[in-house]
Amino acid sequence: PGAKVIGKITHNIPPKPPVKQKDVSTNAGALFGAGIAFTLISYLSALIIGLLLIKFLPVYTQQTASIVLKSPLQSLGIGFLSILFAPFIFILLLLTIIGIPLDFILLVLFLISICLSKIFIGIALGQKILSLMNKKAATGWALIIGLSVYYFLSAIPLIGFVFWTVAGLAGLGAILLSKRQIYSENKRKNLI
Predict the structure, then answer these.
(1) Helix boundaries (H) for 57-99
(2) pLDDT one-digit tens code per residue, 96-154
């Protein structure tokens, strides 16, 4: 209680530790690496699914790829119209209440068709490239070449998005045209 401070009082504030700034290049590098990994996984999964389609559904697979080559504008148009009208059809089925189960089945089938469209585009691209080079190869090799070109062109900024959109619509349209053709043939032969 009787203590006294004699002299000058100095308050020394300890220096603040330097603030670590986020390394933007590290984040960009991580995003770039993740993008490449995602693209590689997507390519490999499309390749495996495509090879399975070629093995177990060779006629359907070749027929759908041929539609892309023979009538690309019709495929593109049908694909565009299906993307345009699909949301309205799905909403309409949802509103009917009793159409909800059918709506979910159609939605899943539609999403699968969108995912598979790049496989048929890949086969068509590969076959076109091989025919321009006067080479004859199995459908599996056409798929490998075509998918590689598809993923390469899709990776180009701006142009890639346009290519990806047009190719996806054309592939989707070819799938729908092929299904209609198979349905018509089977109905004519009284198989369904």
Answers:
(1) 58-70, 72-95
(2) 989 899 999 999 999 999 999 999 999 999 999 999 999 888 999 999 999 999 999 99
Tokens of residue 90, six digits: 């799905």
Which own/partner pairs from 150-153 qualify as long-range (CB within 8 Å, at least 24 positions apart)? 150/118, 150/121, 150/122, 150/125, 151/39, 151/42, 151/43
pLDDT digits (tens, 9 = 90+) for 80-89: 999 999 999 9
> How does 113-150 read in b/e, with b if 16+ C-beta sit within 10 Å?
bbbbbbbbbbbbbbbbbbeeeeeeeebeebbbbbbbbb
pTM: 0.81
Residue of 46, 178, 69 whose CA lies nearest to 126: 69
Torsion of CA 117, 167, 156, 23, to 10 degrees: -40
